[in-house]
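Technical note accompanying the year-one report. For the benefit of new consortium partners, we illustrate the data format agreed upon in the data management plan: each record pairs a sequence with a structure-token string. No post-processing was applied to the example shown here.
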Amino acid sequence: MYRQILKAKIHRATVTDSRIDYEGSVTVDEELLKAANIAPWEKVLIANLNNGSRIESYAMPGESGSGVICMNGGAAKYAQKGDIVIIMSFAVMTDEELERHQPKMVYVDKQNRILSLKS
């Protein structure tokens, strides 16, 4: 059996910008993507804690160390500057793989700087 399991999340990130006039995606500080083991262009689920929306998009790398979390294109309709979001990625695993799996958790402050990592 295969299960879809949380692979990684960036917890309580603050949206720094929202640009409707872009093709689409969410721009994420490359340092955060690496810490969470989220690959550039990987599918992500974004949960907005301010308005309850959940959208799928893909993670586009932003300047490392910048703290950028920018909602682009259609995603900009679901989050605005200052909103708090959780950015999650998932993996498909067998029960055997799941026994050894620990998701990467990246906790950030209000400027999207890494506070702690858990895996």
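Partners are asked to follow this layout when depositing records. Residues 30-36 form the longest helix (7 residues).
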